[in-house]
Amino acid sequence: MPAVAWLLRAGDRVRALDLLDELGPYAGRLCLTPEAAPGGGPDPSTVWRVSAGAVAATLAGRDENPRVAAMHEAL
To answer: What is the structure's pLDDT at 49?
Structure first.
């Protein structure tokens, strides 16, 4: 809950708690984490070593997640 964290850092505890009270009834339906990738991902016991440049190039070539773009636009 970035908005609650921001309010708390700004010293506005009352509004942070008010926001939590408003969102409470929807807690079972809110999704605050990304969905898992299909297929479950790679085996967690496998380790790769890749240079920082290769990782940066891979990340730069990825399409922006539309849900993340919507969050950035909202901010």
So the answer is: 87
Task: Show the tokens assigned to 12.
Answer: 């506005």
Please state the three-class secondary structure of the chain as a single string: CHHHHHHHHCCCHHHHHHHHHHHHHHCCCCCCCCCCCCCCCCCCCCCCCCCHHHHHHHHHCCCCCHHHHHHHHHC
Under 8 Å between Cβ of 19 and 4: yes
pLDDT of residue 36: 74
pTM strictly above 0.70 = no
Buried b or exposed e, range 37-67, using 16+ CB within 10 angstroms: eeeeeeeeeeeeeeeeeeeeeeeeeeeeeee
The ranges of the chain with pLDDT < 70 are none
